[in-house]
Amino acid sequence: HSQRLICSVATEPVLQQTEEAKMDAPKEIFLKDYKLPDYYFETVDLSFALGEEKTLVNSKITVSPRVEGSSSPLVLDGHDLKLLSIKINGNGLKDAHYQVDSRHLTILSPPSGAFTLEILTEIYPHKNTSLEGLYKSTGNFCTQCEAEGFRNITFFQDRPDIMAKYTCRIEADKLLYPVLLSNGNLLEQGELEGGKHFALWEDPFKKPCYLFALVAGQLESRDDTFVTRSGRNVQLRIWTPAEDLSKTAHAMYSLKAAMKWDEDVFGLEYDLDLFNIVAVPDFNMGAMENKSLNIFNSKLVLASPETASDADYDAILGVIGHEYFHNWTGNRVTCRDWFQLSLKEGLTVFRDQDAGPMAHPVRPHSYIKMDNFYTGVREGLFSSFLGAEVVRMYKTLLGSEGFRKGMDLYFKRHDGQAVTCEDFFAAMRDANGVDFANFLLWYSQAGTPIVKVASSYNAEAKTFSLKFSQEVPPTPGQPIKEPMFIPVALGMLNSSGKDLPLTSVFHDGMLQSIASNGEPVYSTVLRVTKKEEEFIFSDITEKPVPSLFRGYSAPIRLEADLSDDDLFFLLAHDSDEFNRWEAGQLLARNLMLTLVADFQQNKPLVLNPKFVQGLKSILIDSSLDKEFIAKAITLPGEGEIMDMMKVADPDAVHAVRSFIRKQLASELRAELLNTVKNNRSSEAYEFNHPNMARRALKNIALAYLASLQDEESATLALNEYKSATNMTDQFAALAAIAQNPGKTREEVLADFYNKWQDNFLVVNKWFALQARADIPGNVENVRNLLNHPAFDLRNPNKVYALIGGFAGSPVNFHAKDGSGYKFLGEIVVQLDKINPQVASRMVSAFSRWRRYDETRQSLAKAQLEMIVSANGLSENVFEIASKSLA
Ligand code: PHE
Ligand code: ZN
């Protein structure tokens, strides 16, 4: 076994293992061990001869040593490649001068000074079911290289700090593969003998190899142009199989909107004359930002009103934007190493206005298999990273202008470089000349800070005090935590619900003005940096209700001393929409937790009339935005409640959530019926806020009503299903009907499948709906669906729909007889042989097994142990499973 150059073995083995197993175990890599590469690559000329049985890859690299005169061994990554030849400066290299194994190629003593290295390998894309590297998707060739897929194509220093200029020549059968694409500009194309043709592409920008891409196949394009603000014409092309072309209009709209937005908000223009997007049906993730040749999961490109829901339209808008924005945040400025992932992902997710908390720290300190960083699955396919929350804190602290200054300096300093999160921090700090204290801890200290707030009003002095105390819970490897730098955006509501003016605050022995140009403000940002600290506001004329962490100003868990009455008040009046929603969620969480305790003690469940009244007033308030109403009347998910329990009890949580839903539906029946009736529309589908909000509100009302399981609601849902003219409404009605086991459910599910069996994206919705059903014993249905002709373990979307859907259903996955765990365990082992990345995303459903009762713990643990001991397990699955057991 050769030792990896850049990796060190973990000092503490993850598991007790035999000596032999230890040698084979994947090596853990640490951030602190980063070393500059010994060699840089200047140019890379790739040449592909694509074939049905094998593909030849020739790679010609100009290499230069980092330190002049050094000739240490050059270690290249390569995964299961067949090496055909190596040349240095044009001369074949003798066997004695290199070593090759299943993971590396080592050139033992390279010439000192610059040289060219030429390597010829043979690969088998048609056998590549991992969908990393070069593979085939429904007959077409495509690539996926992030994070470490390029090593499946050719031997290379597969690390993002190796940035080079690429050319790519593709040769293939002209009939089978009429379209040949790679990064950059097309230099040349032409006919070859034997029915073949070729294309030569050149990318003028330096890039890391994870941004390389190649596509070859039978595709057609929707074409458009974008005129940049400096007046350049950019050709836009979205490629799909001919029959899907009509479904790309929304994707093109989304792309142009993103290009415009980046110019308007950040002054960032696209930097080439051509931008390609290709949609492929087999893809592990959502999409990939390869330079000028984005490759997308079809799910995030194809949409028509009949086949895609509002959520799909929204996701397409978001992800097309996300990948486009990577051109600057990720591609022009990239990551030094994979510990810096949030440098590009956090920033880019922030830029696409997305957000979402995740359990692990933004930048963990070690990893085995990079792909597992990407496993935080939200909304099915697309993961969002806590890093976005961190970026948002910079903006909260600096304001829009200060943040923009920081971004400008970041690009000025680092364009064309591979950098770290500290570099981003330094740009933000230096551009604004501010003291960021220990802000960098957000990148290294794991665990969500818990912030307690105690408030008191002094009527005589007209002061209002807020005492903050923070605690970061210990996490594995980090027992003792430092206090964090926490920006607290806040306001105060007077008794009529209006924001009180804020003028000054006493803190650290000083009275500071918070007025702006002498004018009072209605919201301000405090910098909380100590374990305990007090802020005393002056000139507060009446006892206020504080609105804390407005706009979710920091990714923390808040424990404030607010009463239920305060929360109802905030829910009704807060000028900050996030906090108004959050107040309702907090009330619902508290209510659910109380009822869960009652349920566990066999007490009868009774719904607090105040809660019903609170939701009712929201539901009938015509001054409110409909999307807000829809969100505000949606109860927190079962997973969220389980997370808050000492011992998670899926049955109790499910029973309580169902009880509340049904009780609300019966008490607000008239209002819900009106909501459905008043929010129908006979007009053609439109993707815009008012229409989406209207549909969302109508459909949540319909779902509530269906939970009543009575004749009238059943008829209503069936009528909605039959009269629907778009997928949003049709699917919502189907889901409402499918809540209730019985003949209607089965008939409508069958009808839906018959209608849509030729559209694999719609069929996936159908799989997912059945997979996550809470009807008793659903594991058997899911097992049967594995054998459905439309199902295929090799297609990630189908796995995420059926297996992922099931693993996300609290009652059936966590069935107390262990049937759900057993099912997932079996599938993971099977899936791992086909696609380790997809398998590891599935195995992560087990990762929180310690949160459950002893019976469930031992059942889940047994499955994890079974998985870890399976023969030939991938590194991806091994990392997740073994870390869960550790
Ligand atoms: N970088 C991709 C994105 O931002 C996500 C991705 C990660 C895709 C790893 C494939 C592999 O969307
Ligand atoms: Zn991204």
TrEMBL record:
<keyword id="KW-0031">Aminopeptidase</keyword>
<dbReference type="GO" id="GO:0006508">
    <property type="term" value="P:proteolysis"/>
</dbReference>
<dbReference type="GO" id="GO:0008237">
    <property type="term" value="F:metallopeptidase activity"/>
</dbReference>
<dbReference type="InterPro" id="IPR001930">
    <property type="entry name" value="Peptidase_M1"/>
</dbReference>
<comment type="similarity">
    <text>Belongs to the peptidase M1 family.</text>
</comment>
<dbReference type="GO" id="GO:0009507">
    <property type="term" value="C:chloroplast"/>
</dbReference>
<keyword id="KW-0645">Protease</keyword>
<dbReference type="InterPro" id="IPR012779">
    <property type="entry name" value="Peptidase_M1_pepN"/>
</dbReference>
<dbReference type="InterPro" id="IPR045357">
    <property type="entry name" value="Aminopeptidase_N-like_N"/>
</dbReference>
<dbReference type="InterPro" id="IPR024601">
    <property type="entry name" value="Peptidase_M1_pepN_C"/>
</dbReference>
<dbReference type="InterPro" id="IPR027268">
    <property type="entry name" value="Peptidase_M4/M1_CTD_sf"/>
</dbReference>
<protein>
    <recommendedName>
        <fullName>Puromycin-sensitive aminopeptidase</fullName>
    </recommendedName>
</protein>
<feature type="domain" description="Peptidase M1 alanyl aminopeptidase Ig-like fold">
    <location>
        <begin position="447"/>
        <end position="560"/>
    </location>
</feature>
<feature type="domain" description="Peptidase M1 membrane alanine aminopeptidase">
    <location>
        <begin position="252"/>
        <end position="353"/>
    </location>
</feature>
<dbReference type="InterPro" id="IPR038438">
    <property type="entry name" value="PepN_Ig-like_sf"/>
</dbReference>
<dbReference type="InterPro" id="IPR014782">
    <property type="entry name" value="Peptidase_M1_dom"/>
</dbReference>
<keyword id="KW-0479">Metal-binding</keyword>
<dbReference type="Pfam" id="PF17432">
    <property type="entry name" value="DUF3458_C"/>
</dbReference>
<keyword id="KW-0378">Hydrolase</keyword>
<dbReference type="InterPro" id="IPR042097">
    <property type="entry name" value="Aminopeptidase_N-like_N_sf"/>
</dbReference>
<feature type="domain" description="Aminopeptidase N-like N-terminal">
    <location>
        <begin position="46"/>
        <end position="211"/>
    </location>
</feature>
<dbReference type="InterPro" id="IPR037144">
    <property type="entry name" value="Peptidase_M1_pepN_C_sf"/>
</dbReference>
<dbReference type="Pfam" id="PF11940">
    <property type="entry name" value="DUF3458"/>
</dbReference>
<dbReference type="GO" id="GO:0004177">
    <property type="term" value="F:aminopeptidase activity"/>
</dbReference>
<keyword id="KW-0862">Zinc</keyword>
<keyword id="KW-0482">Metalloprotease</keyword>
<dbReference type="InterPro" id="IPR035414">
    <property type="entry name" value="Peptidase_M1_pepN_Ig-like"/>
</dbReference>
<dbReference type="Pfam" id="PF17900">
    <property type="entry name" value="Peptidase_M1_N"/>
</dbReference>
<feature type="domain" description="Peptidase M1 alanyl aminopeptidase C-terminal">
    <location>
        <begin position="564"/>
        <end position="886"/>
    </location>
</feature>
<feature type="domain" description="Peptidase M1 membrane alanine aminopeptidase">
    <location>
        <begin position="386"/>
        <end position="439"/>
    </location>
</feature>
<dbReference type="Pfam" id="PF01433">
    <property type="entry name" value="Peptidase_M1"/>
</dbReference>
<dbReference type="GO" id="GO:0008270">
    <property type="term" value="F:zinc ion binding"/>
</dbReference>
